[in-house]
Q: What sequence folds into this?
C-alpha cells in the first residue's frame, strides 16, 4: 500500500491526561501532539483555612473529576472511544488527592482497554515547555537547565532528555513558594499568598528592608532563614511603634505591606537567580527555563529576561496557563512516553515523596 494511504488510514494518537496532585482537578487532551483542551477546576474551600486541607481536597477531587474529564473530551472534539492511552499524575503530591486521580484513570483505562501512563508531576512541569498549543512558542533544546519553583519545590534541574532529568540543586528546608505564602499570612493577606505578594510588590520599594540571605554551598537553596528574618523585622517594627497588630502598624508606617512584599520578593528572586547563574556558568549551558507555580511571579519572569540579556542565555518562560498545576503538562509527558511505548502496570500506586 502506498505510504500516503497508510498515513491517511492511521488512527490519531489521542492522549487523555488527569492531574490531581494537590487542590486543582485538571484534564487535558492531546491529539497527534497538539493540545486540544486543558480544563482546570480549582478548589475555593481552602481559602478560609489559609492552606490546603488534604481531606477536603480529596473530596473536592471526587466531585470535580468526572465533569472535568467530560468537558476536556468535549472541548477536544473527541469521544472516549478515540482515546489511545490515559496519562495520570502518580506523584509527588497529596496521597488522598493522587488516589482519586489514579483510581479514576485506572478504571477508565480498564473499561476502554487502553494503556495507562504514569507521569511524575515535577517532570510534567519541566515538559510544559514542549506543549504545542498553537501559540508558536519556541521549545528548549537538550540539554537545558530548568529552575523549578513552586509551593513545595525549589530545584535546579539538568534536563538531558524528556526522560533524563537530574536535580543538581534543591532547597534543604522550605520552598520559595512556601516562603511567599507563609510571609503573606503573617501580613494578613489572603491565601494563596504568592499572587498577593506579587501584586503589592509592584507599589513597594524592594530595597526598603534588607532581609537575610543564606550562605549555602553548591546549588542548593534555603528559605527558612529568610522567613525568620521577615518575621523578626515585623516583630521589631511592632515593638518600636508600640502596637500589637499588623493593621495598627500599617496605619503608622505608610506602604508597610507594599514595601515588605517588594523587599521579600526581591530577596527571593535574587537567591534563586544567583544559584541558577552559578549552575549555568559551571555547566556551560545557555538554554535556561523556569517552571512551576512561582514562575508566574512577575519579578522572577523579568529576572529571566534580564539575566538572559546579560549572560547571553536563551530563556524559556511558560505561558501563565502552564505555570500552575494543569493536565496539559501531564498530557505532554504522557505523549512522549506513549511514543516510546513506556506504559505502566495497573497495580502502580501513587507516591507523595518529592522526586524527579
A:
Amino acid at each position: 500500500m502506498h505510504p500516503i494511504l497508510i498515513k491517511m488510514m492511521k488512527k490519531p494518537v489521542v492522549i487523555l491526561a488527569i492531574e490531581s496532585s494537590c487542590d486543582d482537578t485538571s484534564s487535558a487532551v492531546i491529539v497527534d501532539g497538539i493540545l486540544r483542551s486543558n480544563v482546570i477546576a480549582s478548589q475555593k474551600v481552602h481559602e478560609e483555612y489559609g492552606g490546603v486541607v488534604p481531606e477536603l481536597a480529596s473530596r473536592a477531587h471526587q466531585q470535580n473529576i468526572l465533569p472535568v474529564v467530560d468537558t476536556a473530551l468535549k472541548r477536544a472534539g473527541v469521544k472516549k472511544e478515540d482515546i489511545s492511552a490515559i496519562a495520570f499524575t502518580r506523584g509527588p503530591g497529596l496521597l488522598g488527592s493522587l488516589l482519586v486521580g489514579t483510581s479514576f484513570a485506572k478504571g477508565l483505562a480498564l473499561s476502554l482497554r487502553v494503556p495507562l501512563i504514569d507521569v511524575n508531576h515535577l517532570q510534567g512541569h519541566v515538559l510544559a515547555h514542549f506543549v504545542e498549543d498553537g501559540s508558536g512558542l519556541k521549545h528548549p533544546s537538550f540539554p537545558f537547565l530548568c529552575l523549578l519553583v513552586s509551593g513545595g519545590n525549589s530545584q535546579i534541574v539538568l534536563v538531558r532528555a524528556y526522560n533524563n532529568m537530574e536535580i543538581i540543586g534543591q532547597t534543604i528546608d522550605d520552598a520559595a513558594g512556601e516562603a511567599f505564602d507563609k510571609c503573606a499570612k503573617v501580613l494578613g493577606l489572603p491565601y494563596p499568598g504568592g499572587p498577593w505578594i506579587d501584586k503589592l510588590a509592584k507599589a513597594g520599594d524592594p530595597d526598603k528592608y534588607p532581609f537575610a540571605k543564606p550562605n549555602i554551598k553548591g546549588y542548593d537553596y534555603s528559605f527558612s532563614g529568610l522567613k525568620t528574618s521577615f518575621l523578626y523585622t515585623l516583630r521589631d517594627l511592632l515593638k518600636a511603634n508600640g502596637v500589637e497588630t499588623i493593621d495598627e502598624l500599617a496605619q503608622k508606617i505608610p506602604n508597610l505591606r507594599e514595601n515588605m512584599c517588594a523587599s521579600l520578593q526581591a530577596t527571593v528572586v535574587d537567591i534563586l537567580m544567583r544559584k541558577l547563574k552559578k549552575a549555568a556558568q559551571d555547566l556551560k549551558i545557555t538554554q535556561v527555563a523556569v517552571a512551576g507555580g512561582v514562575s508566574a511571579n512577575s519579578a522572577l519572569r523579568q529576572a529571566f529576561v534580564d539575566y538572559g540579556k546579560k549572560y547571553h542565555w536563551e530563556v524559556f518562560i511558560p505561558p501563565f496557563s502552564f505555570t500552575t498545576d494543569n493536565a496539559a503538562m501531564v498530557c505532554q509527558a504522557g505523549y512522549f512516553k506513549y511514543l516510546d511505548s513506556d506504559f505502566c502496570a495497573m497495580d502502580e500506586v501513587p507516591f507523595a515523596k518529592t522526586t524527579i
User: Anything to note?
Assistant: The chain has eleven helices and ten strands.
